[in-house]
Write a structure and sequence with these properties.
5 helices; globular
Length: 213
Amino acid sequence: MSHLALHRHKERGSTERAVLDAILDDVLAGTLSTVVDGRPWVVPMLFARQGDRILLHGSTGAGALRHVAAGAPAALAVIAVDALVVGHTTFDSSANYRSAVVHGHLSPLPDDERAAALDTLSERILPGRTTEVRPMTRQEMAKTLVMSLPITEGAFLAKTRTGTASPPDQETDAWHGVVELRTVALAPQAAPTSVAAEVPASVRDFAGARVLA
């Protein structure tokens, strides 16, 4: 059982792995937090879940990342806002969302795992792209720190809010309801230095899967 718990709206919290995995597999970015020299440190990062661990990467020149990789306690938070909940008052307004916080200690991956882990990260963000471009060079690999955050029982908590606002406690003519939100992909735009005649399959597939329904 998780030692993390909600004190309000306990019904929104979950320690089920399936709930956590669904959120982690849907959200592309989160914020990694720790304490460095007695001060809070938070940085947004792309990530990928691989089984019972979360893969993250950054520059080897980032001192705070080295601090985390050396074993400092950390937490990764992710959130997806699915709708605005418009109440009959601003006090009763809210948002529908899915969120998760995973606590633990990050470990740098050994050299024989780093290339595959970086490919996993890339494929999580843009499936198929690794087959369309050259592999990373040794110099690029040397500049990249790859870490894993284990997903362990008792060290994570997922939270979900759905539905509408509470019913008005008095008669009102104020409109109230839900406005759903969606993340969509716009048409790909080639960089000025791109000489390729066609948009690659990985980009076409990514954009096509995220058009507005």
